[in-house]
Amino acid sequence: MLLKDQITEDMKTAMRAKDSERLGTIRLLLAAIKQKEVDERVVLDDVAVVAIVDKLIKQRKDSIEAFQKAQRTDLADKEAAELVVLQAYLPARLGADEVTAAVKAIVAALSAELGRNAGPGDMGKVMAAVKAQLAGKADMGQVSAAVKAALAG
Q: Which of 21, 132, 133, 149 has the fewest Cβ atoms nearer than 10 Å?
């Protein structure tokens, strides 16, 4: 079953259960998916849906941080509840050790391709390769830190 179909089924389940908070979050996610499909005139696959979920999760984390600074715990709690619902649609994430190992392998392959050791100036090339391989499987903030560490040392 496609992830988009699973999300639609979860929406129906939330409607039947009268779970308005979960339903609102799922509708928000489906609206973001539909908007992307209409804008680009394509049918999204699971990778693209995971990218949208990642984007929405990042927005929720930023909002939680801002609301906590403003001491608006009511709004921060609402965003945290949405965050939990959205995280259910992400695939299992790689651990820090797995991310570091994957980044080191990509840096080594790029170094061999370039014929020299990859340095900080090659960050863009490395990140492009890493995003292609680890998209949806790892937190990109963690990946970026691992790439910086691999290129520095």
A: 132
Give residue 111's identity as a one-letter amino acid code. Answer: S
> Residue 90 — left, alpha, or beta (φ > 0 → left; ψ -120 to 50 → alpha)?
beta
Structure-derived torsion over alpha carbons of residues 38, 39, 41, 46, reported in degrees to the nearest 10? -80
Q: Count of alpha carbons within 13 Å of 2, Cβ hemisphere only?
A: 10
For residue 14, give the nearest of 91, 87, 90, 85 by alpha carbon.
85
Please give the Cα distance from 32 to 115 (Å, whole number). 43
Angstrom distance (rounded) from CA 60 to CA 101:
29
pLDDT, tens digit, for every residue of 75-124?
Answer: 999 999 999 999 999 888 888 888 888 888 888 888 887 777 777 777 88
Q: Are 93 and 139 in contact (CB under 8 A)?
A: yes
Q: What is the pTM of this model?
A: 0.75
